[in-house]
Structures are given as C-alpha cells and as structure tokens.
Give the backbone structure.
Amino acid sequence: MTPDKTSRSRPDKTRPDRTKPERNVGSSEGTESGWFLAIVTGLVASVVALLAVFLAIAVYDYSVPLQPSLLGKLASVGSYLATGVGGFVAGKKARRRGLVYGSLVGLVFAAAILITGAGNPAAVPLTSSTFKRLLLSVMAGGLGGMFGVAST
C-alpha cells in the first residue's frame, strides 16, 4: 500500500510549522533590554518632536505676533503632542504594552521638562498645576503608546 498525498503520516515541508513561535531577528522584542531601548527611542522622538513643534510656533509667532498667554498654552499643547509622539514611537518599537511604555515616556519626559525648567530638582514646585501637567503628559504618552502598538 502506497501512501497518498492526502495522508498525514509525514509532515508537509511546504507549509510553515505553526507550533513554534516566530522570532523577529531585527526586533528588540523579547530581549532583556528591549523595554529600555523602546523608552529611550521614545524619549529621543519626543525631544525631536518638541523641537519641531516649538520651531513651528516660533515661525508662526514671527509672522503673526501672538499674545504671550497664547504662547504658553501653545507650548503646553505642543509638549503634550510631543509626548504622544514619543509614546507612539515607544509602543511601535516595543510592539507590546504600549500603554505602559508610552506612559513611562510621558512620565520621564515631563519630569525632565519640569526639572530643566526649574533648574534644580529641589526647586520644582509641587502644586496642583504641576501634578495636572504630569498627569496629562502620562496620559498623552500612554495614548500614543496604545496607538503605536495598534499600528504594528
């Protein structure tokens, strides 16, 4: 009795083996330092996005003079957008846990901005406005991280 082609007695070499998980060679997923690389990449993307947003605000302010109170609000919104971009990049890089990685990017980025703005870590004012901005940055980063994971 000869085995026919519909027989399952030996595995078919043309079909991929679905029992083993696929491993991405160029990805940082699954490595010990993958989370760190994703967060650092997100922070760098946040800085670049912040510079681009502030440059756009400066060019617009040069051509059409804006009120100083509006400049402060635009700077705040621009920093939240930059944090969202950083969270997006971190989530896309990690390809999992976008909320966590994006929120961490938002937390570290907002803390760095606060410390840099105060000039001294001990001089950071701990007011309700500070916590509100910190919370908004964490939320923007987490939202960007979720979109980053969803886009992969």
User: Anything to note?
Assistant: The helical segments are 34-63, 68-94, 98-118, 128-150. The mean pLDDT is 82. Residues 34-63 form the longest helix (30 residues).
